[in-house]
Amino acid sequence: MAEAPRNPYSDAGVDTAAGDRAVELMKAAVRRTHGPEVLGGVGGFAGLFDASALLGYSRPLLASSTDGVGTKVAIAQAIDKHDTIGLDLVGMVVDDIVVVGAKPLFMTDYIACGKIFPERIADIVAGIARGCAETGTALVGGETAEHPGLLGPHDYDVAGAATGVVEADRILGAERVRPGDVVLALASSGLHSNGYSLVRHIVSGRGIQYGDVAADFGVTWGEALLEPTRLYTTPLLGLVDALGDGVHALTHVTGGGIAANLARVLPRGTWVDVDRSSWSPPPVFRVLADLGALSLTETEGTWNLGIGFLAVVSAEKADAAAAHLTALGIQTWPVGTIHDSALPDGDFEQGAKGVDGGAVRLVGAYADGSSETGAN
């Protein structure tokens, strides 16, 4: 009997059959995100999305975003749990689009790995599909690339890109913000997907293994630290529809923390004091800070400390906005008011990531853990 022909690509460590198996496993999850606008199904060279839906707009502007999950994937790899990383990816990518008031249309993903384990890839993509379904985003394509020799067999990284649309006269941002506007904080679900290099540094420095039980949380350290990113797109789009012009600006609290990200969506010449006493950072932040011998204020440029999004709204609509979001399960509360008077003395964040915006500082002391305010 003749021997099967040798496959030099397999000899180099690339298993194309495993890649095909991964696609088969993920197909059903991906298809669940498809509406009638998606053409061509799964597996094509390019995803197709029917843009005739944009004909209903007077002046449609496309919004795009790309991001990854960062070193949080190292914890997923350490405990072999991969079904929530996809939610984090959608949070990092799609929730950036809603900042300008855009409705997401479609997303693509990219997974690079040292070796394809089909079930693992399917778990990751199932999480992405779940997040896409929750945010009304079609997952129209993606790529899984096997990089033996560059990445270890169990290593992987994920990234994605998304596109949305917003009517030109409904864009949210600094141009709409006015003195007297109220800044509302929307509670996070935990660390989300930022600052994990510091998290991992603290945990490893204390000799903690991710499989160890974390007494403060009642689960393993790995499970506690993999709490998925809360998705804000659908509730925020609903808020904009409900309040109309009452919503002026939104900001996603990701890398850089609360002050830097809020400063990006405020007009030059305005400032706000964010009142720390209005909320108590959740236990995960307090425990990690204690383990790292850090004060919470020292972590403000790294972690969200319990605030995943901020909304700048008109004063007369602030109570209605907070009630609307809280009724949807996102605890929301006021943290400050926009001013345009002379900037007080103090240490303000002003301008971030190339944006010459407003000035923001955090003031006061955080509420203690027994407080009923804010993000407890």
Key phrases:
alpha+beta; 376 residues; globular; 15 strands; 4-stranded antiparallel sheet; single chain; 4-stranded mixed sheet
Quick take:
This protein is α+β, with helices and mostly antiparallel strands. Helix content is 30%, strand content 24%. The chain has eleven helices and 15 strands.
Task: Give a verbal description of the structure.
This protein is α+β, with helices and mostly antiparallel strands. The chain contains 11 helices and 15 strands. The protein has helices at 8-11, 16-31, 72-79, 85-97, 118-135, 196-205, 221-225, 233-243, 257-263, 283-291, 318-327, and strands at 38-39, 48-49, 60-68, 103-113, 138-146, 156-167, 182-187, 213-214, 219-220, 247-252, 271-275, 307-313, 332-337, 349-352, 355-363. The strands form 5 sheets. Strands 3-6-4-5 form a 4-stranded mixed sheet, covered by helices on one side. Strands 10-12-7-13 form a 4-stranded antiparallel sheet, sandwiched between helices. A 3-stranded mixed sheet has the order 11-15-14, with helices on one face. A hairpin with a 4-residue loop joins β8 (213-214) and β9 (219-220). α2 (16-31) packs parallel to α5 (118-135) and α4 (85-97) runs parallel beside α5 (118-135).
